[in-house]
Amino acid sequence: MTRSRRPSLPFLNESNATLQSRPIRKRDPDQPSLPFDPMPARVEPCLALLKPRVPIGPDWLYEAKWDGYRLAIHIEPKGVRVITRGGHDWTHRFPTIAAAAKELGVATAILDGEAVVMDDHGRSDFGALQRSLGGRGGKRASNESILYAFDLLYLDGHDLTGTELAVRRHLLEDLIPEGSGTIRFSEEIDLPGDELLDHACHHGLEGIIAKHRDQPYRSGRTGDWLKIKCVESESFMIVGYEQSAAARGGIGSLLLAGKKGFDWVSVGAVGTGFSASDAEDLKKTLDRLKTNRPAVPLRGKRYVFVQPTLIAEIEFRGWTDDGSLRHASYKGLREVQDNAAVFDMTGFGS
Questions:
Q1: Other Cβ atoms closer than 10 A to 343
Q2: Cβ(153)–Cβ(160) below 8 Å
Q3: Helix (H) or strand (E) holding 98
Q4: What whole-number distance in Å separates Cα of residue 22 and Cα of residue 87?
Q5: Cα torsion angle, 163, 166, 167, 171, sign
């Protein structure tokens, strides 16, 4: 499924001269210790745009879609920082990843990647990652997590964000040791484009990511990166729950909503995917958020409404005609620090 790691070779043009992505500037002799480019405190991440079909052509490369927490690993002379997508310092939550980054042998670098916990079949498991961190709001450090690095934004004094992706990944691959260490290179999937998604789905992956080889690193959802999913998975706000005397933990289902402008729109409920202990923890947390003013106009004798605060990651198989999730399953809560975006219903179904 993945291409084999080849010996490192420089990028060559037709005359066999090594290509440079940018001109090398001479260092100022009066300030010999300054980097060529100041290291940014943070780079807003490039995000993948959801598409229904795999883009085909030589301009695209393909990777597995990892199901975890997006992280930026800042390697600096004074140490390593692990920064979440929302800009929070979580070095203490991912100590094994931070320790592995120190061993990469570079003075300064920024790696872009995804922290995951793998299941017994070699697939990333978001719920297992959440449990390793102690659940939402937990304080536990995850020693089981590994990092799949897929981009390199800064290296030894050089800002690489203006450089094309193919060059950035070439440098990244050289940086990361081969094998099954704590930091791994997210390999390119070397299959014909029309077979990619079927292959990924057959092997139980969440989907694939397609990236334009020649583009620089641009923050936000620019369309340079695309995500194509086997099973849909999005973030929704929990706006209440249905009480159940029969269900262990006292929760029969969670009431969910998407965002539309400044309002919340009901997308139905989810009653599977959480264990009895998950339900007990959820009920304790949700009961502290009870409100008499529901975020969405729902009616139910056993409904308990809560303030729209907790964001859940939900896997589902499509939508009903009335805008509810089909075959929804709960995967876990998103952390505030993860900066997860609640599903936007604007224009949905129009």
A1: 21
A2: yes
A3: helix 95-102
A4: 28
A5: positive
Structure tokens at 90: 């979580």
- Taking Cα atoms as reference points, which of 55, 2, 9 lies closest to residue 215? 55
Domains of the chain: 49-229 (3.30.470.30), 232-338 (2.40.50.140)
Tens of pLDDT, residue by residue over 274-320, are: 888 888 889 999 999 999 999 998 988 899 999 999 999 999 877 88
> Smallest Cα–Cα separation from 81: which of 41, 115, 48, 119?
41
Asked whether the beta carbons of 155 and 147 are under 8 A apart, the reply is no
Residues 6+ apart with CB under 8 A from 236: 256, 257, 258, 267, 311, 312, 314, 325, 342, 343
* Predicted confidence (pLDDT) at residue 75 exceeds the cutoff of 90: yes
Q: Name the nearest CA neighbour of 235 among 91, 117, 136.
A: 136
CA 314 – CA 188 distance, rounded (Å): 27
pTM: 0.69
Could you tell me which residues come within 8 angstroms of residue 60 by beta carbon, excluding any fewer than 6 positions away?
Answer: 193, 210, 211, 212, 213
Task: Return the active site residues.
Answer: 65
- Convert the pLDDT of each residue in 107-158 to its tens digit: 999 999 999 999 888 888 888 898 899 876 677 899 999 999 999 999 999 9
- Taking CA 169 as the corner, what is the angle to CA 33 and CA 214, rounded to the nearest 5 degrees? 105
